[in-house]
Design brief:
By secondary structure, the protein is mainly β. It is built from one helix and 28 strands. The protein has one helix at about 5-25, and strands at about 45-50, 60-65, 70-80, 85-90, 95-100, 110-115, 120-125, 125-130, 135, 155-160, 160-165, 170-175, 180, 190-195, 200-205, 215-220, 220-230, 240-245, 250, 255-260, 265-270, 280-285, 290-295, 300-305, 310-315, 325-330, 335-340, 345-350.
């Protein structure tokens, strides 16, 4: 029996299979790389608005975005957009800004927090509430404020859990029934507040006269220091604070850094290349879309944006005399408020 033809046939089959496998391995799969979500795009347009006649102290101290066609900015404004009448609230209706309501206080509103469009809380040292078209003063006569104490900024997880903070260690809390004042160590100026809607716990950052920073956990009518820059070898400081997720806070001054609420560990994410740059305000939509509004020493203002992977720095103004007020972000839109040269100042940042 001649096995040679059979052997040759078997070899041809084996070689054919080998070349077929090689061909399969070298063929590129028809799979495209994953596309980043829209929120990671870092192409922005900047639109600047000024309010006031420049003859008196006009200012915008905070902002709340309900949606892109309903934005509230608070402070003190007197100019032609309000028929030269002083107002404490200006609103955006999708096309223009207009003065809203009467002049409530000549000292200006300083903070805003809303549970919905019909329930809006306003801080001015004291407290007011916009409810179904009317603005009323919240009675805090039972609280004893020491000299220099005032409520400037607000945060809440619901209308049954609202916190207010301010200078000279001011902390107040609303539990849905009554407002109470929380005693705290003297000498701290609370700058910013954030929190978890899931747990109801709030976190506030404060600065001392020596520019040290503390993070204070606010929970169940108690205030506990969970971070003190004096005890940190890196001496990380901040004027702003946002909840990154249920584990971490993100803060910023000369550096962007996180603080792990559970492990108490800090981590620096970004350091400004120039010593004079520092962050004033932070607006966070989610952990992949964070806006840091900063002073760039000399040239003016910059937006430092973090998309969860990279930081991008953009100069958007040559101003260098802005006093920053507040910032807020939703999907594809962030707004920063402040004042400069006796005029209220507002910047809308939209994603292209």
């Amino acid at each position: 029996m001649n096995c040679k033809p059979l052997k040759n046939t078997m070899l041809l089959i084996i070689f054919s299979l080998i070349f077929s496998c090689i061909s399969c391995n070298t063929t590129e799969p028809d799979i495209k790389p994953p596309v980043e979500p829209d929120s990671t795009t870092q192409n922005f347009n900047f639109e600047t608005f000024e309010f006031g006649n420049g003859l008196e102290s006009n200012e915008l101290n905070d902002v709340w975005i309900f949606d892109e066609n309903n934005i509230w900015a608070v402070g003190y404004i007197r100019d032609t957009t309000t028929n030269n009448l002083a107002v404490n609230i200006i609103r955006w209706n999708g096309q223009n800004w207009f003065g809203f309501g009467n002049n409530l206080t000549s000292s200006g509103l300083t903070g805003i927090w809303a549970s919905d469009t019909n329930n809006v809380y306003l801080a001015s040292g004291a407290l007011r509430k916009y409810e179904n078209g009317a603005i009323k003063v919240i009675d805090l006569i039972h609280l004893t404020f020491s000299t220099g104490q005032a409520i400037y900024k607000l945060w809440g997880s619901s209308e049954n859990n609202i916190w207010g903070i301010g200078p000279n260690s001011t902390i107040v809390h609303f539990d849905g029934v009554a407002w109470s004042k929380i005693a705290f160590d003297d000498g701290w100026r609370f700058d910013a507040i954030t929190g978890s809607k899931q747990t109801g716990i709030a976190y506030a950052s404060a600065t001392s006269q020596q520019f040290n920073t503390i993070i204070v956990e606010l929970n169940n009518n108690s205030a506990t220091i969970i971070y003190n820059s004096v005890n940190d070898p890196d001496n990380l400081t901040s004027f702003s604070i946002k909840l990154l997720d249920e584990e971490k806070l993100i803060l910023g001054d000369k550096k962007v850094w996180t603080y792990n609420i559970h492990t108490k560990v800090t981590n620096v994410l970004y350091t400004f290349p120039t010593n004079g740059d520092f962050i004033n305000l932070t607006a966070l939509y989610n952990k992949m879309d964070i806006y840091f509004f900063a002073d760039k020493y000399g040239p003016g203002e910059i937006l430092l944006h973090y998309n969860g992977k990279r930081f991008t720095s953009l100069i958007f103004s040559n101003r260098n005399s802005v006093i920053y007020g507040g910032a807020y972000a939703i999907k594809d839109l962030a707004v920063m408020t402040g004042f400069s040269n006796n005029k209220g100042y507002l910047v809308k940042v939209t994603r292209q």
